[in-house]
Amino acid sequence: MDKIQEEIVEEFSAFDDWLDKYDYLISLAETLPAIDPAHRTERYLIQGCQSRVWVDARMEEGKVWFGADSDAIITKGIIALLVRVLNGRTPQEILDTELSFIDAIGLSANLSPTRANGLAAMVKQMRLYALAFANSARAE
């Protein structure tokens, strides 16, 4: 597990019950930088989420940077964690990164089935962006 994921696990270990962890997720939602309003459209909407989640990505100097937003506060906290872990990595690093913090903090075990499906859809979309950037770089 890498340093950022270890930090997340440590932060969540400070809380004993899931109500406190949900409160922490809500506070993390407030740390997510605002997404460009032009990216809050159907084109960037993630399919498979009960709430509305938008994710965009750009490549700068070989690294991928994500923008994201959600209309649901807990979901926004979850996407903030994913952005924190995956931002600033190469496409290959994103494809190779095992998101072990998800299970380590108990997130997957404490989400409703619809939120768990949404989490899987967010991860899938972020990896699809990385794959597209990796393929684009190979083609150049």
Task: Write a brief structural summary.
The chain is mainly alpha-helical and 140 residues long. It is built from 6 helices and 2 strands; from the N terminus they run ααββαααα.
Strand order across the biggest sheet?
Answer: 1-2
What share of the residues lie within helices?
A: 40-55%
Radius of gyration: 15 Å
Shape, please? Answer: globular
Instruction: Please tally the β strands and state the result.
Output: 2
Q: Structural class, from secondary structure content? A: mainly alpha
- Average pLDDT over all residues: 92
| Termini gap | 32 Å
Give the SSE order as H and E letters: HHEEHHHH
What are the low-pLDDT stretches, counting only 5+ consecutive residues below 50? none
Strand fraction band? Answer: 5-15%
Number of helices: 6
Largest sheet: 2 strands, antiparallel
Provide an overview of this structure.
The protein has 140 residues and is mainly α. It contains 6 helices and 2 strands; from the N terminus they run H-H-E-E-H-H-H-H. The protein has helices at 3-13, 18-29, 73-86, 91-96, 101-104, 113-139, and strands spanning 53-60, 63-70. A two-stranded antiparallel sheet has the order 1-2. Helix 2 (18-29) packs across helix 3 (73-86) and helix 3 (73-86) packs parallel to helix 6 (113-139). The radius of gyration is 15 Å and the shape is globular. The mean pLDDT is 92.
